[in-house]
Request: fold
Amino acid sequence: MSIADVVASVCLVAGCFLCLTAGLGLIRFPDVLNRMHAATKPQVLGVLLVMTGAVIRLAGQPIVWMLVLVGVFQLLTAPVSAHMVSRIAYRRRHVRRDLLLVDELGKPADPLPSRPHPEHPEGDPDVDEPADGPDATPRTTS
Amino acid sequence: MTTVVPLVCFALLGVGAVLILARLAMGPSLLDRVVATDALLVTIACGIAVYCAVYEDISLEPVLLVVALLAFVGSVSVARYIGGMLVAAGDPATRGGDADLSGRPDARSGEPL
Reply:
């Protein structure tokens, strides 16, 4: 059992352990965004660890490029799918709002007369004002 | 290498897959099931890669690529489908002023989530 085998074994076991943590997090966490946080650990790091272990183990075989392709593809597609799922989750109110510390997207949902400081002294006004402006206009008319 | 490592790896993957399947079965909304399906496909891909690596069998590696592609296509298409339902329902969730703190789908919209 050489050094490469030991390194490959450690990578494989670490990646599989991340899959176990994804299962535990999916069971225990309260809402969709928290579960996504747990489930994306094996999507990137776990897959990369397992592919690294498999590449070390299968080095010299002609089909190793496919493992590299799987790792690159996970790196490209995991942010896209996570972004889409989390955006829909926020809009469908699958988010536990009482567990959020900062909810930057939720500020226009407040009724307009009760907003305390329209200029937001701690935030960047260049970023904040265009986000508030077009969304507040149909709310007052409806 | 071929005795202890696959035992440990498949035990970890198996327990993780059972927990993910439990969330897939009892997830309160469709998006929970989407996330669980994504994690389950990743677990399957890790299992195939572990099998290929441990037994030095390269016959399953195209299946690995297909599973990795399928996870992306599945989650994105279901997310787009729910977004289409959101638009078709007149966007009630983003327009409503009351905050639903339960994390459950809206009871007003009456959609089969």
